[in-house]
Structure formats: C-alpha cells, structure tokens
C-alpha cells in the first residue's frame, strides 16, 4: 500500500481471483456430499414470515451497501484515479452484478456443506448454526473437519481464502481513509515518505483495535462495533445522505450531465429515477421498519445489557450527526456569502479548473442546444463568461 493503487491494483489480480478458485473447489466438494441438496434447498427456499422482522430488512439492505463498500468513501477514492472519460457507468453495473452473483454462489457453497453437517448430526439445518461471524469461523471449519477426505487441505485453502478476502477489504478501506485524509490536510504531508509513515501509523492503530476482537470476549465487542458503527442504521443513513445530497442539492440533472459528458452519450432514465426516488425511499423505509421493530442487540442467547446499548447508540449518534452538524456549521460560516452557497448547490454553469469540465453555460447559449458539444466548443473558443470554481 506504500506504493499506492498502482501496486495494490496488481496484487488484487491474485488476492481477488484466488477466492473464486477456492469457491469453485468448495462448491464442487460441497454439492457432492450427502445431504447437500437439503442445505441448498434450505438456503434458496424463502421463509415469508421473516419479512415481518425489521432486522432482516436492515441486514439485507446494509449487506448490499457493505459488501460493495458503499458509504465508506472507498469507491469515490478509487474512482478519482480514473481518467476523466473512463466508463464509470459500465464499471458500476458490472461490479454490482458480479458482487451479487458472488454472494449467491458463496451461499450455495456454505449451505451445501451445512446440509451435510446437519445430515451427519441428524438435526435440522436451522439447529446447526446461527448467522453472523460464527458461520464462517465456527460452523464451516467444523463442517470441513467432518469430511471424510482432504480435511487438512480444504481447511488450509478455506482460511487462505478468508485471509485474502480480508486483505482485499483492507486495501480498499485503508486507501479510502488515508488518501482522503492526506488530500484534506496536505500541509501535514509535505515531507519525504509521508505516505508510508501515515499508512504505517494507521495500520498499527487498526491492528491494536483488531486485537480487542480476538480476546475471549472479542466477539461481543465485535458485535457492538459491527452493529452500531460499521453497518446497520449508520450505513443506511450515510448512503441516504449521499444519495439525497447528489440528487436534490447538487441536482440530478446536473449530475446526469456530468456523467453524459464523461461518457459521451446519454444514460438511461433508470439511474436518475433511482437517485431521486427508488434508492432514498428504499433506505428510508428499511430504516423506518427497523426502528419500529427495534430489539436489543443479541448474540446467541446473550442479550446485551443496557449500558452497552447506550454506548452503541452514542457511537451511532456521533457518526450520523457529523453530516447535519457540518452542514449547519458551513451554512453559518458562509451566511454572509450567499453567492458561495448558491454556487455550491444551485448554480449550474461552473467549470472545474483542473478538468475543464463545463456543466451548463446559461449565458449566450440556449439550453435546448446540445450540452456537451456546445459547452466544450464555447470553452475552447474562449468563453470568458464562464465562472471557475
């Protein structure tokens, strides 16, 4: 990571593809076991009664956001390294499809083995294990140990896969944080090897935080961190603010024009509809269902005491309140400069100085004219009526 995304991008070709190789191996081995069909059937057959549980909707919604690293700033950071006219729309669609298909395929691999495990123990599948981290670190290793052959080989390969998946996640997560922090405060990083020093400090801090999770009570600490800060209602709120901020404050039309200028073609109306209606409405409904049916945090049969719930909701509040508080402070600071506020939100005729990207030039140009061609031609011709950010 010291060398930046140029090197991590190359390393991911191995660490990212090896888990797929492992999934295929585990899939072939899993579906050939006795009882695997029952496990796959249990996995794919829906239980309609679960739809009335708020935590199911929250888990499903945040799983999509978390598995694609949305709301964490990582995708924006990695996207900033692309060239201006890179086909980001294609990448997003392919990325979403591969991510979802991988999740489904991984579920088949897991539950085929759990079906075998239930068959060997002569118990229903729902009694074999509960969801959560225990599925990966307890149930599946135990299931592998029950296999008649290749036990040690499959165990080593399985945990190598888990390690590589964790490395891939850290490449993205650490890069997203360190790059944004260094861009926000460049005055602190004007010395030699500043990037290496900063990444080392961040990694050491992450390491000691991670040590808390591997103590005897580490799983309980992990559940608090996971539920109240890393996913759940926090992730829904952050993604809702991102979507609403782009769609309603920056403007969906202006955002659409930006993407069309980068791609050189129009985008389907489906995407603006998602930004304006479907995505924020879905996240708001999931959050509402969760808050109506909220239950105390629980791990197995252990129900967390009230002081941990207060602690958890305090962590949630600090994270969520950051966005409206910073917005309010910026409005107060710039209250005397209404032009600055209008430029940040409403004004649709700006040009970014570095990329020379014209948004929409109102003066001397009819809005009915072709936006990208006219705007670019106007800029090249020396249209000095365009404001610069």
Radius of gyration: 25 Å
Count of runs of 4 or more consecutive helical residues: 15
Helix content: 55-70%
Task: Give the overall silhouette.
Answer: globular
Strand percent estimate = under 5%
Number of strands: 5
Biggest sheet details: 3 strands, mixed
Mean pLDDT: 79
Sequence stretches where pLDDT stays below 50 over 5 or more residues:
346-389
SS class: mainly alpha
Description:
This protein is mostly helical and 389 residues long. The chain has 3 domains: 5-183, no CATH class; 229-335, no CATH class; 348-388, no CATH class. It is 69% helix and 3% strand. It has 15 helices and 5 strands. The protein has a 3-stranded mixed β-sheet. The protein has a two-stranded antiparallel ribbon with strand order 1-2. Strand 1 (298-299) and strand 2 (302-303) form a beta hairpin. Helix 4 packs across helix 11 (232-263) and helix 4 (54-67) crosses helix 12. It is globular. The chain starts with a helix and ends with a strand. The model is unreliable at 346-389 (pLDDT under 50).
Brief overview:
This protein is mainly α and 389 residues long. The protein contains 15 helices and 5 strands. It has helices spanning 5-15, 18-31, 36-44, 54-67, 74-79, 88-121, 133-145, 151-184, 194-211, 218-230, 232-263, 270-292, 306-333, 338-345, 371-380; strands spanning 298-299, 302-303, 350-352, 357-358, 387-388.
